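Example for tutorial group B:
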């Protein structure tokens, strides 16, 4: 990989850790089907502002809410008319644009249009099905992120509050699902909120997508634990120390279905229509933004180690730091990019 080093370790997923002192406040709660945690150095309680952002994201991107923007778009079954909505905060516009960019860069490994395939495979439900190749091919015609015609007004960053955004479906069965990026994007919005308030030291965690700034209560870089892939192991066995960046992990080892004795990952490769089937168990990505860390971690889990290696070589300008865990013949193998900020024992 882009200067990847090899070692034998037990590795992991992300959990935030901090020892709270009196000058730091902590906000906790539930959002997007998961938990959030905001730890920051200030005397002001920003719970209402934080909740306002979280509620807004739910109103736009919650697939389980039939009144959300994305649910209404997905249920829009006309190809001769556009789906129009007011995007006054530009969240949907930005989500579409950055997702299209990462979709192109990863050549379809990151693809928010795979909901029809996820529904075919019954992921998220207790049912167990093994679709036929004919069924997969039939549904694949409704996926592919570039097939959405997304029209923006000429100058959306100045005038979107006055005009509707319009999306035209080329096929009525097309649907969107931003779960592979929206938590990271939410973290970025909360980061911008605290930054605008003049807060210089904080950590934001939404469902394991994390972004930090400044220093922790011990006046050191923030320590983030990477969890062991073992289903029964909740302890962090590796630590990274970060400041002024984001980190996210995607993994397949806890979310799968077993069909006829074969384990199928919940992650679908839209290029094939099948769940990914390779040795990669989890991928941790460090990036400047949380949405990038989130989306690329998702894409890299689809790619697998060799394809990630080539991607990093071809796209070094992205300056991504990557940490991969593979299961090779029953043993955990770890690879990571040069400079990945692992905490070493003194």
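The residue assignment follows.
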């Amino acid at each position: 990989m882009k200067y990847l080093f090899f070692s034998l370790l037990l590795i992991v997923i992300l959990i935030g850790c901090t020892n709270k002192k009196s000058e730091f406040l902590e906000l906790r709660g539930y959002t997007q089907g998961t938990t959030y945690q905001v730890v920051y150095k200030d005397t002001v309680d920003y719970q209402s502002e934080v909740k306002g952002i979280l509620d807004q994201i739910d109103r736009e991107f919650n697939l389980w809410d039939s009144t959300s923007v994305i649910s209404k778009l997905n249920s829009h079954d006309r190809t001769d008319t556009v789906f129009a909505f007011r995007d006054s905060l530009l969240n949907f516009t930005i989500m579409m644009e950055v997702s299209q960019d990462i979709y192109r860069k990863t050549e379809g490994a990151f693809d928010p249009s795979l909901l029809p395939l996820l529904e075919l495979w019954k992921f998220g439900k207790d049912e167990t099905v093994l679709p036929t190749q004919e069924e997969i091919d039939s549904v694949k015609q409704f996926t592919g992120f570039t097939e959405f015609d997304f029209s923006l007004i000429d100058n959306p960053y100045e005038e979107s509050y006055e005009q509707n955004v319009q999306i035209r479906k080329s096929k009525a069965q097309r649907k969107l699902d931003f779960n592979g990026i929206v938590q990271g994007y939410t973290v970025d919005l909360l980061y911008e909120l605290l930054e605008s308030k003049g807060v210089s030291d904080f950590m934001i965690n939404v469902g394991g997508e994390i972004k930090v700034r400044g220093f922790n209560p011990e006046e050191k870089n923030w320590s983030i634990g990477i969890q062991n892939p073992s289903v029964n192991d909740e302890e962090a066995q590796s630590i990274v120390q970060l400041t002024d960046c984001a980190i996210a992990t995607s993994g397949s080892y806890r979310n799968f279905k077993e069909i006829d004795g074969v384990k199928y990952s919940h992650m679908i490769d839209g290029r094939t229509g099948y769940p990914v089937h390779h040795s990669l168990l989890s991928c941790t990505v460090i990036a400047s933004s949380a949405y990038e860390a989130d989306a690329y971690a998702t894409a890299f889990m689809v790619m697998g180690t060799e394809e990630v290696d080539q991607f990093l070589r071809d796209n070094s300008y992205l300056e991504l730091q990557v940490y991969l865990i593979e299961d090779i013949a029953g043993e955990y193998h770890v690879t990571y990019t040069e400079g990945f900020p692992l905490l070493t024992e003194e």
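The chain has a mean pLDDT of 85. Compare this with the pattern of hydrophobic and polar residues in the output above.
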